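Structure tokens please, single chain.
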Amino acid sequence: MKEFIDYILQFGHLNKQQIDLITSKATELDLRKGEYFSEAGKIPKQVGFILEGVVRFCYYNNKGQEITHHFIDELNFVSDQQKFEAQIIASDYIEAVTDCTLLFFSKKDWDEIGNTIVGWDVITGLILKNCLLKTIERRSPLVSEDATTRYLSFIGMFPNLVNRIPLSYVASYLGITQQSLSRIRKNIR
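Here you go.
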């Protein structure tokens, strides 16, 4: 819980009563590898904060191929935020890539925190902005690079993930086949 509170306090000040309210609403959740935090076709019901583990956002394209479009690891929020806030059906899956431990908040509890704590919307707005900037910084350069450079960039951006997640997910994220990724990895060793 301390990691979660420390994370939030980077984005604004909270007094002890406010922190106590937030922590009273948090529930710990263990997700096993392959389980979903949120599923496409369903309305997202929770916001999470990853204490341990890695999740990925993925969807199926019109050819039925599974596409991974980003990863989230420890000490970061995880949510299909726009769909969660609007309470509309999600188009992405959020899947545990490793066994995960998260703190989560139901929509009701999240809204109660927002309605009770003055300035909570500012804090969560800054957190969301930070998350979006990280995603854009990580994703943008990958679009224009060749496959080897994309892989080397991935290693630079996610040094702690490369040995924790299946290569098929890395290949999907990079927009290449698993065979190409295997060749690239072999050539850089």
